[in-house]
Amino acid sequence: MMAKAKKWLSLGIVLLLVVVGAVVGYARWRHNQIYISTENAYVQGDVYMVSFKVPGKILSVNVTDNQPVKAGDAIAELDPHDYDLTITSAEAKLAEAVSGLATDQAMIAQYQAQAAAAQSQLDLAKTELERVSALYKRESLPKQSYDNAVAREQVASAQLEAAKKVVAAAQAKLVVSQAKVDGAKASLEGAKLQRTYCTVVAPVTGYVSKKSAEAGQVVAAGQPLCAVVPLDLKDIWVEANYKETQLKRVRPGQKVQIWADIDKSRAYTGTVESLSAGTGAAFALLPPENATGNWVKIVQRLPVRIKINPESDPRHELRLGLTVTCEIDTSGQGG
Q1: What is the rounded CA–CA span in Å between residue 69 and residue 226?
Q2: Which of 86, 157, 171 is CA-nearest to residue 121?
Q3: CB contact at 8 A, 259 and 324
């Protein structure tokens, strides 16, 4: 009797284990149908390279690697001596151009006064000619007096025309002088602008990385000095490389759980932001040539960009390049 009871008990235990295994297996299968995961995922983010816009010798470097900086903080400074000399030279040229402009304006005023005097002389000559003509017609004056009046009127008219041409030439020169002043002002503004480039500041709030600049170093325009990496969650994201066979139900807006290898006990949250326009192979430097006779099918991976929820990482513990595990809940329809 006891043997029979033990037999039934063993059978019951086996059946129970089978049922539990089936339930667990079904739950696991169902979970994998809804939640798709990958370990091929990394934290990505914006990296701002810092460099001078102008060449020169570095006077000072105010930061070190991994130092936090705020947007607008001075990173490094160039020796401004050469640029100060350029400003001084530009100021001298501007003063010279302004002086030349003032001289031309004074000359125009003088030439205009001379033209006004010539106009008065012409008016007087015309009046005298009219008087002499009237007397000559009445035969009260000899012809020589009339000829002299005509000659004086013609001379006065020629002098007025000459004075007008002198004024026009001076005005044309004034336009050139004004252009020189404008050019000198632009050169001065450009020199002052170049001087402001002697100080380079942090473009964003973040952490200094890859510092290569040292005081006394001569650098070219655009040569990287360091990088500033913002760790604000609007500037970093996760790029998860999912297999193409997993993406049937993935949509932007779906919820994501994220675990970083640096601390797998803590989960971060996020949402699917977008799916890449092409697989990693499509954007490779040397794309695979599939139109060959020895083609072998390989499951491709498509990068999925995941936005990290700001409240899930308030202390900015996620750093660029960290390996993470992502699990997308495909039960949601997303956006």
Answers
A1: 12
A2: 157
A3: yes
Taking the C-alpha atoms of residue 196 and residue 86, their distance in angstroms, rounded to an integer, is 13
Q: Which residue type occupies 166?
A: V
CA gap 279, 303 in Å, rounded: 7
Which residues are within 8 A (CB) of 48 and not within 5 positions of it... i.e. 6 or more apart?
A: 203, 204, 206, 227, 228, 229, 230
CB 244 within 8 A of CB 299: yes
Amino acid, res. 5 = A
pLDDT in tens, 134-146: 776 777 767 777 7
The two three-digit tokens of residue 76, written as one number? 């490094």
Beta-bridge partner residues of 44: 237
Q: Taking the alpha carbons of 101, 102, 107, 110 in that order, is the dihedral positive or negative?
A: positive
- C-alpha triplet 25, 302, 47: angle, nearest 5°: 120
The radius of gyration of the chain from alpha carbons, rounded to an integer in Å, stands at 44
Question: Which of 114, 234, 100 lies closest to 179 in space, CA to CA?
Answer: 100
pLDDT digits (tens, 9 = 90+) for 53-90: 999 999 999 999 999 999 999 999 999 999 999 999 99
pTM (predicted TM-score): 0.70
Locate tokens 């040229």: which residue? 93
Q: Which residues contact 289 (CB under 8 A, 6 or more apart)?
A: none
**What is the side-by-side strand order in the sheet with 56-61?**
199-201, 74-78, 56-61, 218-219
The alpha-helical segments, DSSP class H, found in the chain are 2-34, 81-137, 143-196
Exposed, middle or buried: residue 95 (CB in 10 Å: 0-12, 13-18, 19+)? exposed
- Please give the backbone phi and psi of residue 171, each rounded to the nearest 5 degrees, phi first: -65, -35
Distance CA 117, CA 166 (A): 14
